[in-house]
Amino acid sequence: MERRLLFAIVLMVAILVVPSLFLKSSPRRPLARADSGATRAQPAAAEPEVAPPVAAPSLAAPARVALAEDTTTLTTAHAAYRFSSIGATLEQATLSAYRSFHRGDRGPVRLVRPDDRLLAHRLVVGNDTVRLDSVPFVIEQQGGTVRMSGRAGAVTEHVTYSTVAGNPYLLDVRGEVEGLDGRGALLLVGLGNGFANVEADSGDNYRRYAVAVRRSGPENYNFRSVDSGVVKEVPGPFDWVAVKSKYFIGALLSADSARPQFGGAVLVGGPRSARTATRMATWVTLPVGPEARFRYQLYVGPQEHRAVSPLGRQLDRASPYGWIFKPIVMPVATWITQAFVWMHENVGLAYGWVLVFFGVVVRLVLWPLNQRAMKSQVAMMAVQPILQDIQKRYKNDPQKLQQETMRTYREHHVNPFGGCLPLLLPMPILLALFFVFANTIELRGTPFLWLPDLSLRDPLLITPLVMGLSMFALSKLSQIGMPKNPQTQMMTYFMPVMMTVLFLNFASGLNMYYAVSNLVSLPQQWLINKARREEMARRQVAPRGASS
C-alpha cells in the first residue's frame, strides 16, 4: 500500500510539473559479530545459543509451568499490569483507555498473548544458565509496589516492580541476585513473542510487528526479516529495546539514558502465515556486576506522542516512516498530529470535523501562492513568441540560446518554475497525512458520519469516489483559458481514475481530507480563472487554441 502511495505521489508531481514546462522552451557495540555471520539455521529440537563473551544459555521461549500460580496486579490510571508468581513475569497488560477491535472483541486492549509472558529472567553464570522464569516466587505487595522473591538452586532473585508518577504506562524495575559471590553474571530479559492482535485489520497490524533498538538512533527489525528457526544476534550497547505492533509498544529502557546498559538482543524467528510473520522471540542481555544489582524501566502502552515523548531518548521514533522523505515527512506528520489533538481537545471538534477544517485552512493558506502561480503562468505565455523566435535564431548555438533565454526571463520578470511550487507545496502535507492516519493512535477507531473508523478504508467507498470526481472537476476547470495540450487533456481523465483506484484501500480520513481540499479548490479555481483572464488582457496574451 505504501509503495502504491509513493508511485501515486511521483505521478502527481510529474503531472503537476511537466505541463507547466511546456509553456516555456529552455535548454535543459558487541554481543556477537556482524549480522552477516550471526544468522544461522537451527535444528527444530535444538535451542539457540548466545555468542561469547559470556556463555551459551538456552533461549527457548518461556512456557507455562504446571506449578501452583498466584498473581498480583499493579493498577494505574489507564492500565493494569498483572504479574505471575511463576518466574515473576508480566502475565498481562490491560490498557483500559483503548478498545480491542479484533473479531468482535470490544473489551479493553490486552497486549500479552495468553500463551506468552514478558520479563522472563534467565541468569547466565559462568557456563550455567539459571532458569528463573520457571520457578515460583513469593509475592509481597504494598500500594504501587510489588516485591517478588524466588530461588533456583544456589541463586535467589529479588525483583521489585513499581509504578512511576506522571506516566501511567511506565514501571520501574529493580533487582538483586544472591549467590553470585561477587562473580557477576549476564541477565537475559524476555520481551515475549509479539503482542496479541487487537486490530480490525490484522494483516496490516502483523506487517508492523518489529523489534526496535536504539544505539546512536532508532533501528527496526521487522518480524519478517528473521526466518522461522533462525537466530539473529543484534550487538549493542542499547539505550532501549522494544517490541511493537502498529499502535502499541513494550520497551525496556536503561535506568540512565546517558549510559546504555543493554548489551545486545537476540531475535529468534517464529512461525509465520503465508504473507507475514506473527511471532518472534526477543531476548535482551543486561550485565549484572559484582554488586549483583540491576535496574531498568519498562514502558508498555500506546505509541502516543504525549505518553512516549516525555520519556525522550527518541522513543517516539521507534516507528519511523516516510521512506526517503523521512526528514520532511516525520516533522510535518508530528506537527499535524499535534494540531489535530489540540483542535479536538481545546476546540471540541470531532476528529472528522478537524479534518474538514484542516483541509479548508490549508487551501486558504495556499490561496496567495496559487494567485502568484497563475500570474507566473500568464507571464510565461506572454513571452512564448519571443522564446520561439530565439529558438529559431540560435538553434545551432546552445550556449547562446541559453543566454538569450535567461535574458528574456530577466527582462520580462518571468520565473519559469513559478507556476510549479504552489502546486507542489500540498504534497508533503498529503504524504504526511498518509502516515498520520497509518500510525496515529489518536485516530484509531474514531468514527465520523457513516465512517466507522477514520484510520481504515471507507466500507462504502464514498470518500475515494468523491475524491476522484472532485479531482476531475478541478482538473477540468483549471484548463479553461489555457492552451490546449494533448498530454494535459489525457491526464485530466487518467489521473482521477488512477488516484481513485489507488486510494480505494487507503484510510477513509485521508480520502476525506483530499476530497474536501478539492471541493474547496473549485471556487478558488473559478476566481483564479477570472483573474487569469484579466491578467492575460493586461499582458495582451491571446493563446491560440485555448479551451473554453
What is this structure, in a nutshell?
The protein is α+β, with helices and mostly antiparallel strands. Helices cover 35% and strands 24% of the residues.
Describe the structure.
- The chain has 548 residues and is of the alpha+beta class.
- It is built from twelve helices and 20 strands.
- It has two domains: 2-27 and 326-443 and 452-538, no CATH class; 35-59 and 69-320, Beta-galactosidase, Chain A, domain 5 (Distorted Sandwich).
- Strands 8-9-10-11-20-17-16-13-14 form a nine-stranded antiparallel beta sheet, with no helix packed on it.
- The model is unreliable at 13-57 and 541-548 (pLDDT under 50).
Spatial order of strands in the largest sheet: 8-9-10-11-20-17-16-13-14
User: Care to count the β-strands?
Assistant: 20
Give the termini separation: 38 Å
**Mean pLDDT over all positions:** 80
Ranges where pLDDT stays below 50 over 5 or more residues in a row are 13-57, 541-548
Total helical elements? 12
Q: Please outline the major beta sheet.
A: 9 strands, antiparallel
What is the architecture of the largest domain at the second tier of CATH?
A: Distorted Sandwich
Globular, elongated, flat, extended or rod-shaped: what is the shape?
A: elongated
Determine the fraction of residues in helical runs and give it as a percent range. 25-40%
- What's the structural domain tally? 2
Radius of gyration: 30 Å
The amount of beta strand, in percent, is: 15-25%
The assigned structural class equals alpha+beta
**CATH class bucket of the largest domain:** Mainly Beta
**Within the CATH hierarchy, at the fold level, what is the topology of the largest domain?**
Beta-galactosidase, Chain A, domain 5
